[in-house]
Amino acid sequence: MARNSDVVPEVQQSSNRLRSLVAVSLAKAREETKKETKRTETRAAQLPRLLKIVDLLRKSQVHERAAELAASRKPQQRTLCQPIRETDGRFKKNGGDEQAFLQKLSPLDFRAVQERKLDNYCEVRSWFFESPQYAQWSKGKAWHLSCYGEPRCGKTTFAAAVGRDVRSRADAGKTAVAVLFLAEEDRGRSVSTVPRIGTVQAVLRTILRQLIEDELDQGISSALLQDLASSHTHTVDMSPERVNDYTLAEIAKFDAVFVLIDGLDSLDQVTQAALRVEFARLNTLTHVRLMFIQAPDEVRRPPGIRCNRYQECDGSVVLYWHCKHCSDGDFHLCQACYDEGHHCSVESHVLEEPYHAVEVELRTPPDELVNYIQQRLDADIMSSSDLGKRLSDAQDVVRNVKNTVAAKAAGIFVLAKLYMDYLWEKQSLNETLDVLDGLPQYQTDYFNSLMDEVEEQTDDDRRLALAAMSLVATTCWEARPLTFEELADALHDMLGDLADDLTEHKLLQIAKGILTIEARVETQVKPFHMDVNTYLVEECEERFADVGLDIAQLCLESITAAKESFEDVYDQPGALLERLNDKPFVRYALQFWGQHLSVSDSLEACESARQFLAEYEESPGLQAATFLAFAHNDPWHRWPGSHKLQLCAWFGLEELFAEERSAADINATDAITERTALHVAVMRGQSAIVTDLLAANADTGRLCKQGRTPLWEAVEDYDVENGDLSMVNAILEHITPQALNAANPCSKGETVLLLALRLQKTEIAEVLSQHPDIDLSVQDSHGRTALHFAAQNGNANIVQRIIERDEGKDLLKRCDLLGHRTPLMLMLEREYWGSEQDDEDDDADDDDGNTATTTEDPRLMILRLAIQKGADVGVADESGRNLLHYAAWAADHLPVLRYLHSLKMNINATDRRGMTALHYAAVSPEGDRSVVETLLELGADPAATDAQGQTAHRLAVLRGAAQDIISALETPSAASDVEPEDSPLWAQILFKPEDFLQTYEHGLAGLPNSIVTQTDPLGLTLLHCAIEARNTQITQLLLNDGRVDLKATNLHGQTALLMALTDSIGDEKLLPMVHLFLEDSSHDFGSDRVDYLAQTALEIALSGWHNDIAIGVLQHCETLALDQRQMRTLLMRAIEVDSEVAVKKLVEAGADVFICRRGDKLPSQIAEEEGAGAGVVQLLSDEECSVLRTMRPVVAPSRVDSGLGTD
């Protein structure tokens, strides 16, 4: 790598000249100190600081210039898919071939970055490594760790230190560590500049590279390297799905994998969202631990939780356990009490950690700050010139330095760094002592001294600097940081020609260190510390008076000036986007003018806003520009709408809203989203405007394009941790029965109650279920009622409430359309009900002679209540199974089994395959000997046979059940079952696949249809069994045989493909088998079929993040029922793989093509850059134009009664 001085000699020369001028000024100032006033003396003392600033600016500029040159260099063609070189099919251990492969897999060597960061490292956060958060995270949790700190507080170095600490504590050969420095460069390249593959794939490939490096370091042979070496191409031109497969395979080799992500917030929002999806997928793996290190922009503080044993422990907690079954929802235990074995007073209740992330502030305690200062003194001062020698003999001065700097930094690490940099400029003992005395004692004093330097510049530089600081402070405080391009454009609008020659270098120079430019995809300008931002906003009003910034007015003026340029291209996406990109601040202004106005008291801005609103509805250009501006800002592309009331509702402009409401149609809908102002206000949490609209009789039942009512938006946006139900309650006070029970045609016919139950938002579900107008008998498109959902999810209180409220509607007898299952069947099928007291020592007889437990199982309690309400326990599902079969299959319902038997149910009742409850207990995947023994005790017949003549013992042997279950089922007549010689074909596939393949390697043509179409006792076809056996060869043989029914389902309503997709979420070995279904377009596997959870193959593939498979399934689908987020994911992938069929289906299904952007490009432009076919590009281009052409001057429609709104 070239030296910085070679890269940018002009920067070095410029900084040398500036240093000379400063030195001359310093000499003159010192000569005048005896004659001049105290002000001159102060200035002389401050001038040395300029030397340091010049050096810092030079280093910053050199770094930026080097990055620009690196980015501008043309990369070699097809860098990532050139052959490594000819090999003999093997990689030499630690040889050049391995390194060449790793470099081509990912050119980012973050291990080298980590080593550089740890050079001369001083530990300033040892408390973190001793914290309970770090200890628990290291053990492996469902939550991830989020560490946040101020800019320049050493977060990246901290990430490197954590990586080193994890490695030092880990067992060799069992742990892997991947550290991602997303805001750093390695040899002039970052994750955002890797050619061809994009940022997301660059990150994922870098994780894979580090996993392989750990594997090689620990002497483990890498199967991935061997696999690629033996291929005919020797390349790493892998598809994203293949990268995913290899990553999962590498992860599986370790007991624990730690992934540390530093600087995710430095990437653009779209890339952040895509990476968070990938990281969330990794976090589902039990042995993967994620840690994010980032700035505190959007950090959410944990709620104040107290341990229920607060009288015996510290009480206030960060790590805690929550009882998910207590009706009051208030039972919590701190981690320490949980570790000691304490639990909820109801022993059957289950405790869980109810959070997804634990947040830690990267503070620096005073004692560790002193350690840092000592290290700087040791490394920098004492190893240098004569000053170091003198300081080594002046320990009192050293102590003075440490104590003074630590005290004045006030625990802020970045201030300590600045102070030490300042002291480094002093090369004499006397000057060092003088400077210590002159250091500002308080933060405000220090900030004032910096601002004094700004004010002492030439008038033009002073005005430009103050305007820049005023803009940066205001936008950071009220909205988001400006990019440098947005700031420069805004300054030009404010100051005209004065800002024409503004560069990043000049901005840093005139801001005197107060502003910093963060190296992001879009460079953001911020104060160097959050306290500085507070200081600029709260303490510098008088200093900024000459600038006269009215940010809301500036936004509106900039929009007005650009308005005419939008009108003639509003329906030409490319031209409109180009004009927006030419005026970066206008794009910002369109996004945030209202946000600034909502906190402004400017009468001029309010008047400008009135004029803007009047023009907005008549201007397709303004509407289209706003639409594109929000597409750039929001990763999910939510935008206010085409009506002025919707704009006011979006920004919470209550006074303007009140003015405009009387003359507007409050129920007018946006042409693109079909949302009303009430939808928008609810989405944005604008409670005052929601109240106003409801009081004005707004339509609470209007459905938007996605089938959502305003109440639906409130339920979906409800934050469980926050627990604020005010928005929901406000709507419920004005809602009509029709709107309350309206079905969403875009979400399987769900009502808001079914939505709340599906999302397990229990608080809302309880409120809705108690509403007097709620219709508990409403069914979704699969025949499921609220009772089905509540029973399936384990909402015991709601189940009980619905049963008690059932007034002649026979909800307990309602069967769904998925498997003809009653709510009680779903209750026994699910595992979310906690553990039961099933020890016989705890059993007792109640007054009626029935078996009860000391702490009654909630399912048993509900079952008793259901029987009292007339439930029919003998009803069977479509497979002929009754409640006894379900209880035996679940294998943990002993009290329920006994209670059902007490109701005189036939313990030997059979399903359509002739199987009794004992058969199910024998082959249950949750097999438990106690269940088998209980059934036998209750009279189950071990000699009973199913339709194929198999006893429970025979099935247990054939299905490979545990030995204790087989032993419990043994009878004298069962001896012949131990070594079966006539194993059916399905058993051979499951347990003797090698014999099966040897016999049928050329196909199944010689077998009769009755054999090929046979099923095992659980309804598994031969193809299901091949999937369960994870055998690709047998799967291929069966798929080649046209007699195999691809639509046949098992006990869970799953076709073989649905079963393979579901199981692949936890076992990636199944993915090649899934591909076999999709490779042959003639395969009719029923792509629109759903399992008993109402999931299609497409939905299951998306839930497992298998996007390539989802694209393959999509091409077989006749209809799509996906939400916008799912369609966004598929559309992005369809563009990448150039699937015209998939793109066409998604566009026809209503996918929002504008959420598929990257940077400042349209989807059609991205497709063209990716090399997609002309058909894909044209489809996207036509849809983009079609969307923008819906922008028309608003004509308020006459109100149409939807039948759902308020009278």
UniProtKB/TrEMBL annotation:
Superkingdom, taxonomy of origin: Eukaryota
Keywords attached to this entry: ANK repeat, Repeat
ANK-type repeats, residues: 673-699, 782-814, 913-947
UniProt name for this protein: Nephrocystin 3-like N-terminal domain-containing protein
Acidic residues composition-biased segments: 836-849
Annotated segments matching region Disordered: 835-855
Segments forming domain Nephrocystin 3-like N-terminal: 125-272
